[in-house]
């Protein structure tokens, strides 16, 4: 190409970036918001981060950094910057690896002109949903004159052209494929390798958003070729493909507004093709200008194997031989059920499962790697496969924590030389003994993610050691000398991710006991939170002692460090660990080449929120007598209304919940910080408030429920404080340890189900399980309040809200007769006006006819917004059919959750929050001076209209 000014510069570090303005119609702004989580703030922030990443990336030499180009990838990955950056790398790499297919795409090239003249591909306009619609007439590709690569170049030209359209980036596309007039030559000219490359482009390398793909009149002889082509697609794309026997069926799927005359519409094909060709020609310089981008091909070729067109399964697997000492053979047999026959059979089954799994694209299949998971799960192949999936998924979801683990990276070297973790050797049981000196992590210089990366590097290094896989590890933790900064830098979400790695994600086998000592009081709350995310089995292994002297006896003599009265030189032990890291460096970095379908697995496991088997807070230690500074119950925050210092606002680390907060609550750091300051000032100056919590988490309850209107939030807080004093029989002295609370938990009156696909916490309420002779209305409200107070201590629940499912099957009439109209009115008034609850949905199932009258009165007391969120169903089957919650339900409903586990989770959650809930009584308000709530008991204006949704049960 001639040397001239390119339409878009490819300088990766320009002096300034252009200012982007969204100029598309309102439809696209709405689609961008709802489907892509895009708004002006999100977009600007993501562009800044991505440009910084490009500028700092040593393997990208030249790249477009204009907004339109980068938004291709950000919109494709719904503004996840790490995933968008990875998509950009893949795009740049495939262009370099196959330049004959994807570079020098010139629409004036004679062959390109010929294919354009045949008009196999036509843009027919936008449908009513804003999606770009295309018709492909496959028979118009000339199978005799043009090669598969030439047809592919034509398709790449089309893709590069339309990807410059922001409407296409946002709305995605609908594709209609007409296979009429095809000959067998149209299909046979494509080799398997060429089909693989082309599908990689359509489903992975180019940032394409598909709506649906419809095809018709596919000839029988073409089916094997098309099946081969689709075998390389990811499952998500395959699900969008529909094929019909007749063109008439295809025509039904084309939007009438853009349907060509040839398919029963009114749009002229020739006119469409002329307009499309004109747009292709107008963008010629832009498409050719893409060739100015440059990357380090050697580096990326090692990341994405240029031989991807070869079959994913190796032709042969390594033959494994057990070469460890006899001690490990004995441990493997007794503890892991491993022998030569079991091992070989399990490896064969697991390799076959990987080969057949459409969601795993690349994975190590050598014995040493797979045995990590098989030994972890005692050679249960299904459980080992699930452990592998979880491991691969977490690595992809948190690449900043678990990928690119390079021991030669300066930060990794710094952390290592501080000596926070040392491998002391192997004890007489064959276990690896590790010592963590927590104070050696730099609380000021290094972030939690950097410390976590170091520990991930240690874990990956040691997991390559078979002695570690078989024998497991014995860990000792020394907290002596730790400062507050060692603990305070860890957010709740950081702790959650790290514990997930230790107890769920990495296949680590722990010894019977994990001994810790010297935990300072100011660290106990953080460690408490950390352990609340552990599985119960791991929590039972942990013992905590007040002094370091108490754990010295747990070192075997040959492994006791000199600083604890032994002979082991820690410096020498650290040098041995460093050598092991250097030896394994290439192996650990090579793990980054494994690939999975991230979209599929991230929807399967919600790693950013709580899941039923992961969050079981409560009895953190098995020996309460040794607890000392460690405690299993969270300490209550201060109720001093004017503390010397306030805690800072921190956005939640869950990307899903941050987006919900932004989209639904208008929550931005600057807005939140300002609102917190305004609310704290109001509390400090309010003479009616004597004592009140002012910690950020508590106040954010009210700000979030009022969408950061601090005036409305202050009013709700005042109502909350007054309600607690006005109804002490409902809200006072809520002790979760009382026997009657345990009885209600055991009755399964209220059951926590975990999070739904939108991140909302779901609870099941069954009044048929309530002992009406024993539990009165006040007891029910007190129990509900304990549950609500415990779940809304979690900021993720404040953001996403709660979903309640009422199963009224077999509910007796007395359950409704217990409640007086005054009690209903007062309680609903508290729920809707005084309690900071985000009730997102209420599902009422199988309400008996005699309950309809009470239901109508309840609804009349609710706000219009809450009434609109109530849905009624005749049967549980109807509810399950209309709501995607089956997997959350207990097994007795056809779900997958064990009711005993669910009861335990509720008990543990209430236990953990006991002190916090009791401490709410320390807040105090002078009700007579609360001007905002003088009329709190008056009927709510405009909310007295009786409605009949409980009678009309056939309405969803």
From TrEMBL:
It comes from Anopheles epiroticus. This is CRAL-TRIO domain-containing protein. Residues 111-271, 420-572, 753-901 form the CRAL-TRIO domain. PROSITE patterns: CRAL_TRIO. GO terms for molecular function: phosphatidylinositol bisphosphate binding. InterPro entries: CRAL-TRIO_dom, CRAL-TRIO_dom_sf, CRAL/TRIO_N_dom, CRAL/TRIO_N_dom_sf. GO terms for cellular component: membrane.
């Amino acid at each position: 190409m001639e040397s001239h000014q390119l339409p878009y510069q490819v300088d990766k570090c320009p002096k300034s970036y252009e200012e982007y303005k969204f100029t598309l119609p309102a439809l696209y702004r709405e689609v961008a918001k709802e489907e892509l989580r895009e708004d002006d703030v999100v977009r600007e922030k993501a562009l800044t981060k991505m440009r910084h990443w490009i500028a700092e990336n040593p393997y990208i030499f030249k790249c477009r950094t204009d907004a339109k180009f980068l938004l291709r990838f950000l919109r494709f990955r719904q503004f996840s910057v790490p995933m968008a950056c990875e998509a950009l790398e893949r795009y740049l790499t495939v262009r370099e690896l196959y330049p004959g297919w994807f570079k020098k795409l010139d629409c004036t090239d004679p062959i390109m002109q010929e294919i354009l003249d045949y008009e196999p591909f036509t843009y027919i306009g936008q449908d009513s949903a804003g999606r770009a619609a295309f018709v492909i007439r496959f028979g118009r590709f000339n199978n005799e004159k043009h090669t598969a690569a030439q047809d592919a170049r034509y398709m790449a030209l089309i893709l590069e052209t339309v990807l410059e359209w922001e409407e296409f980036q946002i709305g995605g596309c609908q594709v209609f494929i007409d296979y009429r007039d095809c000959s067998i030559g149209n299909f046979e000219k494509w080799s398997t390798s060429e089909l693989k490359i082309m599908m990689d482009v359509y489903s992975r390398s180019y940032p394409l958003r598909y709506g649906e793909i419809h095809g018709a009149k596919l000839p029988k002889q073409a089916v094997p070729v098309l099946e081969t082509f689709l075998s390389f697609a990811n499952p998500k794309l395959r699900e969008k493909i529909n094929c019909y026997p007749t063109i008439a069926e295809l025509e039904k799927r084309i939007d009438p507004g853009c349907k060509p005359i040839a398919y029963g519409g009114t749009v002229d094909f020739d006119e469409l093709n002329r307009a499309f060709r004109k747009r292709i020609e107008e963008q010629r310089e832009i498409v050719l200008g893409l060739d100015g981008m440059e990357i380090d091909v050697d580096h990326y070729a090692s990341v994405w194997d240029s031989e991807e067109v070869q079959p994913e399964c190796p032709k042969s697997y390594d033959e494994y031989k057990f070469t460890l000492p006899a001690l490990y053979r004995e441990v493997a047999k007794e503890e892991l059920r491993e022998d030569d026959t079991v091992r070989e059979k399990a490896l064969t089954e697991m390799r076959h499962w990987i080969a057949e799994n459409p969601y795993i694209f690349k994975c190590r299949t050598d014995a040493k790697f797979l045995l990590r998971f098989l030994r972890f799960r005692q050679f249960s192949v299904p459980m080992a496969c699930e452990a592998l999936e979880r491991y691969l998924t977490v690595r992809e979801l948190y690449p900043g924590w678990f990928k690119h683990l390079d021991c030669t990276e300066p930060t990794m070297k710094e952390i290592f030389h501080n000596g926070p973790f040392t491998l002391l050797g192997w004890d007489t049981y064959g276990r690896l003994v590790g010592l963590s000196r927590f104070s050696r992590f730099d609380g000021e210089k290094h972030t939690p993610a950097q410390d976590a990366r170091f520990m991930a590097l240690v874990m990956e290094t040691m997991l390559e050691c078979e002695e570690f896989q078989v024998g497991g590890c014995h860990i000792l933790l020394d907290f002596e000398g730790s400062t507050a900064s060692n603990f305070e830098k860890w957010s709740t979400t950081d702790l959650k991710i790290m514990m997930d790695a230790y107890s769920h994600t990495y296949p680590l086998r722990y010894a019977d006991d994990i001994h810790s000592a010297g935990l300072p009081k100011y660290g106990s709350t953080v460690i408490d939170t950390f352990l609340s995310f552990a599985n119960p089995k791991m929590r039972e292994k942990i013992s905590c002692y007040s002094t370091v002297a108490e754990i010295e006896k747990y070192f075997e003599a040959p492994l006791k460090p000199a600083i604890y009265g032994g002979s082991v030189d820690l410096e020498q032990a650290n040098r041995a660990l460093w050598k092991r890291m250097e030896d394994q460096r290439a192996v650990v970095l090579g793990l980054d080449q494994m690939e999975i379908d991230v979209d599929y697995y991230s929807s399967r496991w919600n790693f950013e929120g709580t899941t039923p088997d992961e969050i079981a807070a409560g009895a953190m230690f098995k020996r309460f007598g040794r607890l000392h500074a460690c405690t299993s119950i969270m300490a209550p925050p201060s109720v001093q209304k004017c503390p010397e210092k306030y805690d800072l606002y921190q956005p939640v680390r869950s990307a899903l919940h941050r987006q919900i907060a932004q989209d639904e609550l208008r929550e931005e750091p600057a807005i939140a910080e300002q609102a917190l300051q305004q609310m704290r000032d109001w509390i400090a100056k309010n003479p009616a408030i004597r004592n009140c919590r002012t910690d950020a988490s508590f106040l954010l309850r009210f700000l979030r429920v009022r969408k950061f209107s601090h005036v409305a939030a202050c009013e709700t807080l005042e109502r909350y404080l007054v309600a607690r004093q006005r109804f002490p029989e409902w809200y006072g002295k809520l002790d979760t340890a009382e026997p009657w609370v345990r009885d209600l938990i055991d009755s399964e009156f209220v059951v926590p189900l975990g999070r739904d696909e939108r991140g909302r916490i779901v609870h099941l309420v069954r009044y048929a399980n309530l002992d009406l002779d024993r539990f009165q209305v006040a007891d029910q409200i007190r129990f509900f309040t304990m549950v609500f107070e415990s779940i809304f201590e979690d900021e993720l629940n404040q953001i996403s809200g709660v979903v309640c499912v009422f199963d009224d099957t077999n509910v007796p009439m007395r359950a409704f007769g217990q409640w007086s109209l005054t009690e209903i009115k007062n309680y609903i008034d508290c729920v809707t006006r005084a309690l900071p609850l985000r009730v997102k949905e209420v599902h009422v199932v199988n309400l008996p006819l005699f309950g309809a009258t009470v239901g109508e009165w309840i609804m009349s007391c609710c706000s219009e917004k809450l009434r609109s969120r109530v849905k009624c169903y005749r049967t549980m089957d109807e509810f399950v059919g209309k709501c995607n919650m089956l997997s959350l339900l207990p097994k007795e409903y056809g779900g997958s959750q064990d009711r005993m586990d669910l009861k335990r989770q509720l008990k543990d959650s209430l236990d953990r929050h006991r002190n916090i809930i009791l401490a709410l009584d320390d807040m105090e308000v002078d009700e007579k001076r609360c001007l905002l709530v003088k009329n709190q008991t008056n009927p709510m204006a405009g909310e007295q209209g009786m409605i009949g949704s409980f009678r009309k049960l056939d309405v969803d």
